[in-house]
Amino acid sequence: MSRDEREAFLADVHVGVFGVADPRGDRAPLLVPVWYAYEPGGGITVFTGRESVKADLVRAAGRISLCVQDETAPYRYVSVEGPAVIEDRVDPGERAAMAHRYLDPVTAPAYLEANSHQLEGDVTVRMRPERWRTADFNAFAKEFS
């Protein structure tokens, strides 16, 4: 994908797979599905529990990765990785924007109300992508059409 294509794809609504190194003994990296925010040219934003395993591992590793995909043929994906920082707060406006990104206009306010306690219990993880990996199988699929 071109730079514009990959950034537009990442900015679209997908559930991302968040990855962070897990040095606790004989373990593979921690991979979990997450909601995320991204604007072309900017950074990735994810919210997680202040005392979660994910937050602890980000603090230790200082780096994360995120992979998003299109699950319909022809398949596409974007994977990014970079340094991560944790902010010890969640901006209510950013949380509301993320809920409205993933939920319909009726469900988002109800979700925000039901989970308002998370504003105190969550932290914000921010990552600026340094490395990108992409694939777009549109051209490959055209060979078989």
Basic shape: globular
**By CATH's scheme, which homologous superfamily applies?**
Electron Transport, Fmn-binding Protein, Chain A
User: Taking all residues together, what is the mean pLDDT?
Assistant: 94
Number of helices: 6
| Backbone structural class | alpha+beta
The share of residues in helices is 25-40%
**How is the main sheet built?**
7 strands, antiparallel
SSE sequence, one letter per element: HEEEHEEHHHEEH
Number of domains: 1
Per DSSP, what share of the residues sits in E-state strands of 2 or more residues?
A: 25-35%
| Alpha carbon gap, first and last residue | 21 Å
CATH architecture: Roll
The name of the CATH topology is: Pnp Oxidase, Chain A
- The top level CATH class name: Mainly Beta
- Regions with pLDDT < 50 over 5+ consecutive residues? none
The strand count comes to: 7
Q: How large is the radius of gyration?
A: 16 Å
What does this structure look like?
With 145 residues, this protein is an alpha+beta fold. It has one domain (3-142): Roll (Pnp Oxidase, Chain A). Helix content is 32%, strand content 33%. It has six helices and seven strands; from the N terminus they run H-E-E-E-H-E-E-H-H-H-E-E-H. It has helices at residues 3-11, 53-61, 92-102, 107-114, 118-121, 138-142, and strands spanning 16-20, 30-34, 44-49, 63-70, 76-87, 122-127, 131-136. Strands 1, 2, 3, 4, 5, 6 and 7 form a seven-stranded antiparallel sheet that branches. Helix 3 (92-102) crosses helix 4. It is globular and about 50 Å long.
